[in-house]
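Standup notes
- DV: blocked on the single-chain target, sequence here:
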Amino acid sequence: HAYIVPSSDPHLSEYVAEHYKSRQWISGFTGSAGTAVITLNEAGLWTDGRYYIQAEKQLQNTGITLFRGADPKTPSYTQWLKDKLPEGSTIAFDGRVFSAREVKKMQVEFDKKNIKVQLELDLIGELWTDRPPVPAEKVFVHELKYAGLSRKEKLQQLREKIQEKDANVHLLSVLDDLAWLLNIRGNDVPHNPVTIAHLLITQETCYLCIDKGKISPEMKSELIEDGIQIKDYQEIETLLQELQPEDRILLDPSQVNARLYYKINPQTTIIEDKNPTLL
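- DV (later): unblocked, structure below
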């Protein structure tokens, strides 16, 4: 009965590659922040004070109403949907572009009106036929003379922090944290020297889930030597499903997308806290 389209990518980045500009594609609004909501009869776009004038111009004659997010009289889009939809409705979105924390909060709100949440639908992907491809720019090394510490030293420090949190596994999807930790850089996002990937760190191994074509044979050897296993980008879901009941995974629910969060083996303990790399 309604579909929500935010501005983020599967790594919940503020600045995203062209492939992930779904909200821009559906609405025509090109600002960096905003959420589009489409019901069967109407649509709205929520954005902040930086973009009111721009959004007003770009949304003219689109049938999309502008909601000024900072105005105290403006309902949140969850409140607006609760007011608009009858009990028992279904709201859908692509769970890869919402954080686990956002989805949990939404579910609490929508449960009050018996509204169901479906987070496995990428309707934009079905409609956007000339969508730019997922970027596949080559990864390059951030040299030790600039990085200060080797990736082996950083991984050792991180593992100590994971153990301090009483965990033995850590899921890291934040692109700048990942680049810092592994001393790598990329060109997947304009003006942001990052590469699109996920990391799963255990006490023995670090799994880098990435488009393998981005990594040169020389870099592959260097990473393997430092205890990093290279997997396909999508394999992160399988790794999470294969965690054991005795595993304890540390993650930040505001920095992990909802689809990955719900792929974790339900018998595995989840420890929610800030990513140690952030600090």
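- Follow-up: The chain is about 30% helix and 20% strand.
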